[in-house]
Each structure stands twice: as C-alpha cells, then as structure tokens.
Structures
1.
Amino acid sequence: MLTNPAIDTVFFYLFALLTLGGAILTITRRNAIHSAISLIVSLLGVAGLYLLQHAEFLFAVQIVLYVGGIMVLFLFVIMLVNLDQMAKERQFNRGWMVGLAAVAAVGIEIGYFFYRGQGSFKLAEVETPPIAAGLGNTEILADVLFQKYLLPFEIASILLLVAVVGSVVMAKKRI
Amino acid sequence: MHPITELHYLALSAALLLIGTIGVLTRRNIVIILMSIELILNAVNINLVAFSHVYGQVNGQIFAIFVIVDAVAEAAVGLGILIALFRNKETVLADEIDLLKW
C-alpha cells in the first residue's frame, strides 16, 4: 500500500479528535439542532477512519447515507417537533448520577481489559488467504455481498421495506 | 510516533460506545437519545472495519453494511414513533412519558 505511517498517524488522531469531540458535543448541547450538527461532524470523522482502513465503499456509504440521509431526517423531525421551551428545561433526567456511575464502571472494566489483555490482541493467522490485490474495494465487496451473503442481503431489503411501511403508518394522522 | 495498530481503533471504538451510552442513559430529549444510539452503532462499525482490515478480509465490511441498514430502519421507525408520540402527548421528554409507571 502506498501509505506513509507518519501521515497515517496524524490523520488517525485528527479523525479520532473529530469523532470523539463531535460525540461529546452531541450529548451535551442544549439545543437539539446543535446536537445534530455535532453528530454530523462525528459521523464525518468515522467516515475518515473508514478511508484510513481502505474501506472506500463504506466511506462513501457513510457520507451519502448517514450525513446525507439520516441526518436530514433528524433535522426534519427536530424542526417539526421543536418547542422553544424545550431548550430551557432540565436537559438530564433525575437518575443521571446512576447512569454515569454505571458507564464509569464499564469504562474502568474496558480500560483494565485493554491494560492487562494487550498480548491477547495478537491475532491468530487466518485460514483463508487474503483477498486478491488489484481489485477495487467496491468490486470485492460486491462479489462477496451478492454471492456469499445473498440471503442476508434479501432479508435486509425486507427489513427496510417493513421499516418504511411502519414509519409511514405511525406518522399518519388517522389510519 | 507509534504506528497505528488495531488496538488504537478498538480504544477509540470503546470510547465512542461509552459516550453514546452516557447519552442514552442521561439525556431527557428523545431525539438526542436516538442520536446517541447512532453513535453506539458507529462504534460497532469501527470495530468491524478494524478487524476486517487486520484480517485482510471484507466480511467485516459486509457486516458493517448490515449494521448501517439496521441503523437506517431504526432511525425511520424511531422518528415515526416520536412524531406519533408528540401528536398525542405534546412532549419529547423521555421521563414525562410515565403512563405505565407505578
């Protein structure tokens, strides 16, 4: 691969900063629209991480689908539902201390696992040979998706159809 | 500088997962709870793509596509429920919906 490790490192920390900074702003902002815009920044950071790992198709899907599709849906619903007094009210629920304590416990657990179990991340050798070089990422992905994973793909399309019909039915005024 | 390994990606993904969980557990606004769920699903995707990269296989990326499909379905249904809820209860705050509470 034509990559320079130093540049990779710099870009990794840049995208990690975008991702985590956007995520923290998303859950702390008072105004829901500011939250949504922070979430866009965070999702763009994740897209950059995909690009760093040579997952070019997922990079495009992340931007087109998440940033272009889901976020527009979120902004649309926020503007449909937004009440002016909602931003002035209490933003966190009464049990926030309990929630934060539970998350801190899980975080300490994960940190301890990373600290003690670093050696176990040396991954075993894979049985199947790595994918052939020379083909593009999208081409390889399409080959695998439409041959090996054809049935899950069809099930996913049915899931999307059900979700679309369900959301239209629920958002209707009278059925 | 240290080269970036899969451990960096796993740590980043764990941090993103924890931030998303804090959002789900502590916020009152349902729209922001749904956004936090998107953050959690993205953390899962980072993990899947990182392992896909390490192994030189694309199976992880295929799974990430399915996770994205689930995220889309979840967002559409969740926001549909939210609109129906707002029409009936005039609120988007999670702790004011307490009809089933003792």
2.
Amino acid sequence: MPELLLELFSEEIPARMQAKAADDLRRMVTDKLVAEGLVYEGAKAFATPRRLALTVHGIPTRQPDLKTERRGPKVGAPDAAVQGFLKATGLKSLDEAKIQRDPKGDFYIGLIEKPGRDAIDVLAEILPVIIRTFPWPKSMRWGARSGKPGSLSWVRPLHAITATFGPETEEPDVVKFEVDGIATGQTTYGHRFMAPGAINVRRFEDYEAKLKAAKVILDPQARKDIIFEDAKELTFAQGFELVEDQVLLDEVSGLVEWPVVMMGSFEAEYLAIPEEVIRATIRNNQKCFVVRDSKTGKLTNKFVLTANIEATDGGKVIVSGNERVIRPRLSDAKFFYETDLKTKLEDRLPKFEQIVFHEKLGTQAARIERIERLAAEIAPLVGADVAKATRAAHLAKADLLTEVVGEFPEVQGLMGKYYALAQGEDASVAAACEEHYKPQGPADRVPTDPVSVAVALADKLDTLVGFWAIDEKPTGSKDPYALRRAALGVIRLIVENGLRLSLMKVAASALAGLSVKPADATRLPSDLLAFFADRLKVQLREQGARHDLVDAVFALGGQDDLLMIVRRVEALGKFLDSDDGKNLLAGTKRASNILSIEEKKDKRSFDGAPDAALYGLAEEKALAKAIGEVKAEASAAVAKEDFAAAMSAMAKLRPPVDAFFDKVRVNDDDAKVRENRLKLLNEIRSATRAVADFSKIQD
Amino acid sequence: MDASLPAHMRPERSFQGFILALQRFWAEQGCVILQPYDMEMGAGTFHPATTLRALGPKPWNAAYVQPSRRPKDGRYGENPNRMQHYYQFQVIMKPSPPNLQELYLKSLAAIGIDSAVHDIRFVEDDWESPTLGAWGLGWECWCDGMEVSQFTYFQQVAGFECAPVAGELTYGLERLAMYVQGVDRVYDLNFNGRDGDQKVTYGDVFLQAEREYSKHNFEVADTAMLFEQFKMAEAACRKYLDAGWKDGKREAHLMALPAYDQCIKASHVFNLLDARGVISVTERQSYILRVRELAKACGEAWIHTEAGGAA
C-alpha cells in the first residue's frame, strides 16, 4: 500500500521545540487521515534543526465509498416535497428511489452513493491546513509576503516542502499543494556546509539514505546515540569518564544534523572552582559535557563538545576556538567565586531589606526573620538543635545575593553550603543552606539531617501560610508560586522522616508571624489542611496507592498529624484488601444505607444507645456485645497508634454483622423493636469510626 | 576575502580593515552604508535607521557601525572584553530577503571566517527590547561555541506589527575581531593593521576612555542633572510629537525624527542613572515603561510620515 513522505524544510528550529513538533505533525496528519476514512498502518516523525519529516505507510489508495440512505416523503406527497427530495438526493426521478413500507405508510428512500476520493487528493487538501495551523509555541512571519495580512506563520522561515505519495514499487507522485507561495516538490537539501546541494527524493527509504549521504542524520535518537557513544569512547580512551546529562544530550542533538564529538581542555587551575559551578558554566553557556577522572571521581580539566561539521582541518580550529570561549567563562566564574568568598553570608543580609519578596508579604529580610522564628519553633519537634536551626535559617537565603548564584541560579543553595563551610559554620548548618530547598519534587531526595528538616519545613510552611493569607492559592493549572510542590515537600519531609507534628499548630504559629492579617484567619489553618489532604491524595494516587482512604481518615475530623494519617490510611488499605475488611465495609455500608432511608422516612436520626432489654434474637445480642468489645479494643489500639491492631479488632465485627443481616429483619412490625434495631445499626457505623469514616470509602 | 588588499587592511590584521570589509560586503548587497547616529545609545537597534525604518511598507536596506554605550558594563578597563563603549555593526533588510542566512554566512567568509573549518551554528535566541516595545525571533550565531552575532526577524517595533518583516543582523565587532586576530584581550586588538611603532591598538584608542567613563558612570555622573534631563527629554519628546501632527489632525506627522531623538536621549539618561545605582528595582520598571511609551508614540508618528509609508 502507498506511503506518504512529508518534509518541511526551514531555517534552524529551536532545539527545545523539535521533539514536540515532530510528535504534533505525526498526530495531526494521522488523526486527519483516520477522520477521512484512510486507516494507515504506521507513522513515524523526525526532526533535525532544519527539517520536520513524517512518513506514514500503509495508506489506502482511495477512501472507501460511502453509501447512505435518505428517507423522503410519503408516496403521493405534494410535488414540492418530492422535488425537494430529488434535489437533496440528486436523483433524476422517483423511479430511482426505493419504496419502503413502515407502520406510518409507504415512503420513498433515496440511496446516495458518495464515491471515495483518491487518498492523494485528500492529502493535498488536509496537509496545507495542518501546516497553516501548526501549533508552534512561538511562530513568526518573514519576507516580502509578511507585508500582507494572512501570510504564513512558521517557527522560522520555511523554505521547501517535500510531499510524495505512492506505492513502494512505483515512482511516487508529488502531493500537489501550495502554502504561502511554497509549492510542494521532491527536492530537499543536505547539510548546510558539507552538502548544501539539492537532493531529489522519492520516498522515505531513499530520503533517509540520501540525507545520510548528504551528512544529515534524520533520526534524533540516532544523533543522540552517536553523541553519547562517541563521547563515552573518547573520554574512556583517555582514562576519563563522561558526566552523563540527558537534558543536555537532548538539547545538543537538536543543534546538529551531523554530530562530531571532540574533546577540549582548560587550565587545571580552574578546578579550584566548585565542580557544580564548572559544570554550570560549561553546560549552560557552551552546551558542552564535563568529564570526570575515573580514578578519583573528580572533575578533570576536559570538556566534550559536539560540532556540526567534519572540519577540513580535523577540528583543530573548532577545539581551540571552544577552549578560547570556555577559558574567560571559567575565569569569570572563578572571579565570582573568589569575590563571593570575601564577604560573609550574614554581611549580605541587610541588602534583603531592599528586596521585596512579595508586595503583600513584605521584604526578603522580613521573610528570613519569619523562617528563623518558625525553624526555632519546629526544631525541638524534629529533634534539631534550636541554635543550629536558627543559625541555618538566618544564613540559608544569603547566597541568593552572591555573584555565582546571580550568574547561575541553578546552584542556589549549593553555593550557600560552600560559602557556609568556608566561613567555618557547623556542618549541619551548612548542609541546611543547601537542603532546605529540598525536596523540589516527587523524585527529589528528602533531607534527613534534623537541622535541614527544620529549616525546610519552616521555609515551605511560611510560603504556604503567607500565600494563603493573601489569598493567592493555586487554581487549576495555575500555581505561580509552586505551592503544590511546597505542600508535597512538607508531606514528604514529615512522612519519610517519621515526624510527629501538629500541622494546625505550626500553621497557626506561621500565621501569627505574618504582618498581614487575613480576613478569615480562623479558617485558614483548616483550609490549608484540606489542601494538604488533596496533595496527599495526589501523591498516593501517583504511588498507585488508594487515595480515597485519605478522605475516610480526614473525615474523622481533628486529623492534622500527617504521619498518623498516612499510617492509618496504610493500615486501612491493608484491612480493606482482606476478606474481613471487604465484608465489613459492605456490612457497614448496608447499615448506613438502611439508616439513611429510614431516617428520611421518619425524619429523625437513630442516635443513642440501644436498649438491651429489647433484643429478641441471639444475633442482635451477639452484635451488640461484639460492638462493645470492638469499640473498646479498637479505641485502645488507636490510642497506642497501633492501627494494624485497631483493624484486627474491627475484623471481629464482621461475623456478627454478617449474621445480623442474615437473620434479623430490621424493619420489625413492632415500632419499638424497629427503632432499637436501627439504633444498633447506628452503633455499627459509630464503631467503625474508631478507625475511619467508612461512608467515604469508594467500593 | 579580497586577496588584493594590502596586509594592513586585511580583516584579520586590523580592526578598521575588519569594519571596512563588512561595509564593503553589505554595500555589495545593495545596502546603504550609513555613518553612526550622532547620539549616545545602548545598541545599534536604537538608530532611527533601524527602529523607525523597520516600520511601514517601504523597502529599506542599510548597514552601519554604531558605537554602543552600556554605562553599567564599564570595568575601568580591567576586564578583557567588557566595556561601557563598544561597536556594533548593524544590518537591516526590509523585507527580509529569502537568502538572509546565506548572506550572513558569506559576510563571515568576507571577514576571514571559513565555514569549512569553523563550526557555525544558529542557536535559538528570541530578542525583546522592553524599552522599544519590540520583539523578534531568531538566533544568536555561534562560531566555535562563541556568540558572534544576533540574527533577528523583527515582528514588532514600537508596539506596531512589522509589515513586511525586516531582518536584522548585529555583529559584536570587537569580539569577532578578537577571534579573527587571535587576541584574548580587547585592548590588544591591532586597530590600524601596522606593525612596530606604527601600530595602534584598541587600547591606545579606548583604554583611557574606558577608565574615565567607568569612573564617570559609576561614581560621578551628576544624578540631579540626569533626573532633570530625563524629565526634560520626556517632556520635549511629547511636545514635539504633539506639535508634529499636520493641521492638528492625526493624519500626517512632520516631526517624528526630532521627537525620537528625545526618546533616545531619555533611554541613555536612564541607563546612566541605572549605572549610578540611584534607581530602585520598582522604579526601574516604571522608567522602562516611560521610555517605551515614548518609543510607541514616536512609532505612531513615524508611520504617518512619508518614509513611514503614509500615503
């Protein structure tokens, strides 16, 4: 079956946009094909800096014919109706229509046949629309045509479109269309410098091969593999090791059509700069990889660059050119680092009085003070030394004002640690300067040093409470202050370190420290708690755990100890996985359902202790007894925070509950007995509340 | 490269030869070769030959050197490549020709950068000038890992859509010349291409100026006067704009260029105040906005002039 080859040849496409663009092109074209009844076998899209390419194979030559029946007027209907029917169906006369009988009478039926069109014609219609509406994150106009409205917008000027269609065995046809003066053809171009000439292509197979001969590797993954393998080999041969960097690899592979990997070096004196700063300098500014000495594990004075050309001099000029650029960059970095070391972190703090953190939340200086106070308060709760936590909170943000962090924001925190160590701070204090930003996301490491934990919690809670106080909560996809991440950080810090903390109390302290007073200060901590519950649910869901149980636990009220909540949820989850758990849940739900129906009927609730004297059946008595025992046992277990034991106690409820529903008719004719039995059902519900609100659990 | 050039005029030997080679190359592409604008400005883009001529439907091809003043970048002559005054070479072609990238690469060849041995790359860099209310898409052009030029397709200038779009190239002349001459310190550039006691270096020409202006920009520039000048330039710009509408109707404008001079002035005065550290973070934004408002108003006036394409 025929295949499509499409190439959009342009000026250099930003590296970061290429992968998504290839994907969008594949999706848009194949979706449209399917919508047009052209079901294809497979499709693949590629991107290089100068081209987006797509191949779709196994496309039928023609759309299937479409047959539809159209019901017309009744036999004997007025002429106007008949004429309308003929016009709509394209029939010449009523002789061409069928007559169909149904209970309402005889009707004319017109059979409309819409013959399928050739796939190449369909393509010629859909492709220009896709090109004109392509979802580039940013696009532009260019050239003489941009003087007129409606000119094409593309990521960078588009120069040529190759579009061919045909079966493997034959010479394919050009899919003929024109976009903004660019007519399709089968001519593309090779590498900008090494093979700039025109290339005539037929279909994907020869297209990819001819491009390769013209020094263009079409497949981004192939370019990545080449860069990665060559870089590893090159460094290994000299006893070094490449510092792998997937993000950089992705970017670099989008900057070249013909990757040529080479190694350069810089003066060893620059190795006195912290490794992360060397890496940031070389990576961000030069898009080069850094290299480790395999024996010592330390960075070495080498770097790996990826050129886009096999230079005629073997690359000597390119390597020395890159070395000449990297040298002053490292020289700058070294200068910044050494300059930074001359000023103590605390001496930078007064400058924060001039820097506004948020218009409504005051200056950075005020924020640092709040974090200090809160860290001191949290410290004893997490086993941290109060003086160290206060000191760490005092210094933790100071590196934001250093030259190195100004230049490379991604080393914030880390530089704080280096500078703190350099000025002789305690190791925990220095570590907290870096670690208080952690965890930055679900995959980031959670600090364990109590000083880091105290400052990290204080930092995040101050942020959360602050933005809650000025009503800047995340909405939908908008979370400009990364509050969801902060809340998740708090959850992970507490749970993964096994910390006992009343969130409400800490939030209230954080709130008291704010100069801004929110309108609904009393509701704020519980609002915030609900936000934590949501984040906890999201986190559990992402871990594949049951998240509905979070609601069942939070619904008990007064739950603000995250660790206990999580433990309870875990125990509950395990319990509900067992047969006892499942049946008890079913029994409890049944009790609740009956109760809510009867409560509605009688317009009253059935609270209060049942009267033992009214129990007529053995099952009633057994259930009442079991409830009493289980309640006591579960509450005692919960008090000892032994949730597994509480669940085992609950399990004992299952047989009497089952037996009760089996043998006892709740709606007894005797109103008193009925009321008493309903009260007993209510007791089941309240007994289970020792561990969770079962009504919130999804089946 | 032109082999007939005497040695001291070769772009890899002399800074002035380097500039002349670029001028000659772009002259041959049909550009008018202008001389620098006679006002202080932060970048060649501020020259009315770019900012204003980029607006309106009329074709325009020009190239020129523009001294660029960045008061904050002064380093008292002590940094090997950072200066408060340097040269940009600016090319503007409207509409952008279809082969602008190729022309650019040829211009590199003309100054001695051979694309067979150098690794030349177009790396995404979107350009935006908040003070000019302008933006465009394009690249920074890399030669062996070094950024040597900016390449931009103007989409909007002074708040107006560019129709047609102009292509703009900006070469950092000192940096490129350093690369071509193989020197690591800008002040070591050979300016006139001569040897021995006839040799004049970039340092001979500009080092003293860098020291003096750094002191001026950071320590001494009269801030009271500058604040006043900013206000005066802003007021004058508004005044000329108001007075320029022919017959008081907003149909034709007769003084876009003099008004725009005051916008350039205000922008430079702001840069000086910024270097003196007397503008706070919040005020900074409002000054930028004030200059942008002037630039926009000048752009509007310009499109009502003859060169701006008004009927």
